[in-house]
Design a protein that fits this description.
One of its GO terms (cellular component) is membrane. By secondary structure, the chain is α/β, with parallel strands linked by helices. About 25% of the residues lie in helices and about 35% in strands. The strands form four sheets. Strands 10, 12, 14, 15, 16, 18 and 19 form a seven-stranded mixed β-sheet that branches. It has a six-stranded mixed β-sheet with strand order 5-6-7-3-8-9, sandwiched between helices. The radius of gyration is 26 Å and the shape is globular. It starts with a strand and ends in a 23-residue tail after the last strand.
Length: about 450
């Protein structure tokens, strides 16, 4: 194993035997391998990739794609059918939090038992116990049987143990999707601190924004196959395109992603380089349109009854612009052409950074509202007004339209990175960060 890698996975596969009835399982035991009474389900198929020390890698994929199986194989709770896994460092896993707790034991007793499983001696656990108890914040319940805990208390305690064992490798499987917002933020802050200390993190989430914000690279799994590995924004865009595709188009999209596999990292780097703000002289409040400023990372979902056309930003003078001035008012417009009749139609926009972090946007109406009916062949003009409160930088705009097809509210069409724009610097600029909050400073000489 390379010394720079914390995890190496080579041609890893896992097959489960599916029995229709308990009787078939019993017959298999006595068949001596002469006959199969089961069906094979390959949850993972020849997966290969590596994770460097100190790297945070996100894993995305549809339900049933093999994400949880992969993590269980890495943690050693499942044995592979074929292939090899090599890890370098103590592993702490946040999989099914609290699943290893004994409900009859107290929280305190479970802390010591769980920590021992993770490799800590009793003395080491004693030294860490105050930190574990403080993080969990369950008060006197620490000495009550775990069977009296709420699910939230169970999660708090399990998480507190897992992140206080000084693990070199942290495995997270949707564990942070539970708990209240304050606890989630506390968990993320702790994980960020572990990242700063050089921990390697393998992170599974259905939240594309979290993967983009949190991870250095991402892996796209589907039906047990590693479809793509690359920069998080590029991978998440393809993941979202895949999950919103119709069943008949999904295999075609998967083939396209396979063909792009080797180029994803280079593609995203060139897109980001193209999107980096150029050094310009401060000033002008004049907006203009640069025909060479075009997004290279646009992903258009399959049309499902509608098609988004001509997304663009316009000034108050009704001129197209992609170089904007902070503090000015703009109009984001696009057309939507419908190819089938739909109801409850809503439109949306989202502004993102070059890394894919969602800054904010809007929908044309609340959930349950929208245009009552749009007919096949109809074309609708959509407009969103906004004040540019962004500081100097480069940004992307999404566009989307949803509606009811039958009883299901679904995307009719969506375009990721539909439009690219820059915000120019202004004279005597004192604002910092991404968003201008109109902060005013007061400095007084107290001497």
């Amino acid at each position: 194993m390379s010394s720079e890698h914390a995890i190496e996975i080579e041609s890893l596969s896992k097959c489960f035997h599916i029995y229709d009835t308990p009787r078939d399982r019993l017959l298999q035991m006595f068949s001596m391998g002469e006959k199969k009474y089961f069906r094979e389900f390959w949850a993972l198929k020849a997966a290969s990739f590596s994770v460097k020390r100190g790297e945070t890698v996100g894993i995305v994929g549809r339900n049933g794609s093999g994400k949880s199986t992969l993590l269980q194989l890495i943690c050693g709770t499942l044995n592979p059918t074929s292939g090899a896994i090599t890890t370098n460092g103590r592993i702490a896993a946040l999989l099914e939090l609290g699943s290893g707790f004994n409900p009859e034991f107290s929280g305190r007793e479970n802390v010591f038992m769980n920590a021992a499983v993770l490799g800590l001696s009793q003395e080491e656990t004693k030294r860490r116990f105050h930190d574990i108890e403080s993080f969990a914040e369950i008060g006197d319940f620490i000495d009550q049987p775990v069977k009296t805990y709420s699910s939230g208390m169970m999660v708090r305690l399990a998480f507190a143990v897992a992140i206080n064992v000084d693990a070199q490798i942290l495995i997270i499987d949707e564990a942070l999707a539970v708990g209240d917002e304050l606890f989630q933020r506390k968990c993320y802050a702790k994980i960020e601190a572990l990242k700063q200390l050089g921990a390697t993190i393998l992170f599974v989430s259905h939240s594309g924004g979290t993967v983009i914000e949190f991870c250095d690279r991402a892996v796209l799994l589907d039906s047990g196959e590693v479809l793509a590995i690359g920069q998080p924004k590029a991978i998440v865009s393809r993941y979202q395109r895949l999950i919103y595709a119709s069943a008949e188009k999904r295999e075609k999209i998967k083939n396209e992603i396979r063909l792009q596999l080797a180029d994803l990292s280079d593609e995203q780097q060139s897109a980001d380089a193209q999107a980096e703000p150029e050094t310009v002289e401060a000033a002008s409040s004049n907006d203009f349109f640069d025909p060479n400023l075009k997004p290279q990372s646009t992903v258009s979902y399959e049309s499902n009854g509608a098609l988004i056309l001509e997304p663009a930003i316009y000034t108050r003078a009704n001129k197209p612009a992609n170089t904007l001035t902070r503090g000015e008012h703009y109009f984001y417009r696009y057309k939507v052409r419908f190819s089938k009749s739909v109801s409850n139609v809503r439109f949306g926009m989202m502004i993102k950074t070059t890394s894919g972090f969602e800054l904010g946007g809007a929908a044309s109406s609340p959930v349950g509202g929208g245009i009552v009916h749009a007919a096949a062949g109809q074309e609708i003009d959509v407009e969103f007004q906004f004040n540019c409160k962004l500081n100097i930088g480069t940004y992307f705009l999404n566009a989307g339209v949803t509606g009811l097809i039958g009883e299901e509210d679904t995307y009719l069409h969506r375009i990721i990175d539909a439009y690219l724009f820059k915000v120019s610097p202004t004279e005597n600029d004192t604002a910092t960060g991404v968003v201008d909050f109109d902060c005013v400073s007061t400095v007084k000489d107290i001497f």
